[in-house]
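Figure 3 (text version): structure tokens given as input.
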């Protein structure tokens, strides 16, 4: 993996170690020998940066893989990372850390918090792997769904800590302590609860072809389920004074999503599957949706989408017929 480093820093080093012996007379152009020497020094710097990066990632991976084995292990590593980032690096004393740890134990150290840390760390591990192996990102869909599904299964425990799981894992104290908060993985979702992006960027792209369109449709159905589950299980319920009533109520956010977002995702699924090769079934399903949701605020927009698809197909067929006729 190529390391990222600032041009200004490289130039500072180069001019310090490579040009200090040059005279300070009139400005001069670089000779071929000068350029060769500078390129050699640049390569030395790049190799040193790569070694440092690999050492840092190696240490992080070892620590993280041990810590995700249990909730308590994830929490133990969390304490060590907080001590490093917020106290040692900030030149604060050990007494201050002990005081912080006492308050943390009293107010924040819960079963939900420890479980959320473990899930956060699991996603951070997968994010590191995605960065190190960007050419294999198409194969990460199954792993991503497995880790997100585990969070969904733990929704009862994790509800008080959902905010932690919606954060960018590179902003976590784990990433800061091991100096990997500058990690870059193009297009990779950095929150395990960014459901839409996980499906759009990781799960679905390799399935958008005629051979995999049936799997694409299944992935869309899972995405719709997961988006609904997130709102249904983790949104706040409305207030109710009636005994036995509250358990039967659904969150207003989920109810609104069922009327709007759910239907939009159904339409998006059919559009995606149509464009990926499943034209007959998708076209039929789109007509069914237009008939069922004729009063929906997006119905005119969907009608235009459908007309565009049909017109585009007709133009292609007409061109083909003209070409055959000319022969």
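Below: residues designed for each position.
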């Amino acid at each position: 993996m190529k390391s990222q480093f600032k041009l200004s820093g490289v130039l500072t080093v180069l001019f310090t170690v490579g040009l200090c012996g040059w005279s300070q007379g009139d400005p001069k152009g670089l000779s071929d020998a000068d350029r060769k020497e500078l390129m050699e020094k640049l390569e030395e710097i790049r190799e040193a940066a790569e070694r440092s990066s690999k050492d840092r990632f190696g240490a992080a991976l070892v620590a993280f893989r041990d810590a995700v084995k249990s909730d308590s292990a994830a929490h133990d590593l969390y304490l060590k990372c907080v001590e490093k980032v917020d106290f040692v690096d900030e030149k604060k004393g050990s007494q201050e850390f002990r005081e912080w740890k006492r308050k943390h134990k009293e107010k924040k150290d819960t079963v939900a918090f420890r479980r959320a840390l473990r899930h956060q760390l699991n996603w951070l591990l997968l994010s590191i792997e995605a960065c190190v192996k960007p050419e294999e990102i198409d194969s990460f869909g199954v792993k991503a769904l497995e880790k997100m599904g585990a969070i969904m299964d733990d929704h009862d425990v994790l509800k008080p800590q959902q905010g932690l799981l919606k954060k960018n894992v590179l902003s976590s104290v784990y990433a800061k302590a091991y100096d990997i908060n500058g990690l870059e993985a193009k297009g990779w979702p950095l929150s395990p609860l960014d459901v839409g992006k996980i499906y759009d960027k990781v799960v679905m792209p390799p399935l958008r072809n005629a051979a995999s369109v049936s799997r694409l449709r299944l992935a869309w159905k899972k995405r719709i389920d997961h988006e609904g589950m997130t709102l249904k299980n983790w949104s706040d319920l409305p207030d109710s004074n009636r005994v036995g009533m509250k358990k039967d109520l659904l969150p207003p956010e989920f109810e609104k999503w069922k009327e709007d977002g759910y239907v939009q995702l159904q339409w998006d699924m059919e559009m995606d599957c149509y464009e990926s090769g499943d034209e007959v079934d998708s076209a039929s399903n789109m007509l069914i949706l237009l008939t069922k949701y004729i009063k929906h605020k997006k119905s005119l927009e969907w009608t235009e989408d459908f007309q565009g698809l049909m017109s585009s197909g007709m133009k292609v067929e007409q061109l083909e017929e003209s070409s055959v006729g000319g022969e």
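The longest helix spans residues 32-67.
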